[in-house]
Amino acid sequence: MKFNIRGENIEVTSAIREYVEKKISKLERYFDSAPISDVHVNLSVYNDEQRIEVTIPMTNLLLRAEVQHIDLYAAVDLAVDKLERQIRKYKTKINRKFKQNGSPKHAFAELEKEARLATEENNESDIEIVRTKRFNLKPMDSEEAILQMDMLGHAFFVFTNDQSGDTNVVYKRRDGKYGLIEPNV
User: Fold this and answer.
1) Phi/psi at 106 (nearest 5 deg)?
2) How far apart are CA 86 and CA 148, in angstroms?
3) How far apart are CA 133 and CA 172, in angstroms?
4) In this predicted model, what pLDDT tens digit does every residue of 65-99 receive, in sequence order?
5) Strands of 2-8's sheet in order across
6) Alpha helices (H) along 6-71
7) Three-state DSSP state, 42
8) Residue 138, SS3 per DSSP
């Protein structure tokens, strides 16, 4: 397992590095056939608030957790707990699909997309795009897309529909249910 640990407004000491590596390395026990190769960890401090972001890209899955806490070590523990829940949810879902259909479903797409709009209004009222991300769309059904969206903690998820081949978007509604956006052909 290869770690990429970066600090923002904090020095990543050897004690912090060892603690993060020790805790996250425990996740390897969940993956017998697909070992974790790269782990990206960003540590930051803003206004006495410690923040940790952990991203683990894998072949068929993207695990991601963000946690803010007063104590950095507690934030690491909470992030690992969050990642373990995602892994258990993923494995349960795949096992259920395998039992129902007799074959595993399409691989989950790797997605990390965020949209930010400028909140300050100025006289010209310009819209500024502050971040652009590119990713590959993998074929899947809407149920798998919703699972991936929930695991990433996002409000929407872009994917290629495995039946129609069109680009679709699933999103979480304010009432807690889900919506699907399809192109009008």
Assistant:
1) -60, 155
2) 9
3) 21
4) 999 999 999 999 999 999 888 888 877 776 666 55
5) 2-8, 38-46, 49-57, 62-69
6) 14-25
7) strand
8) coil
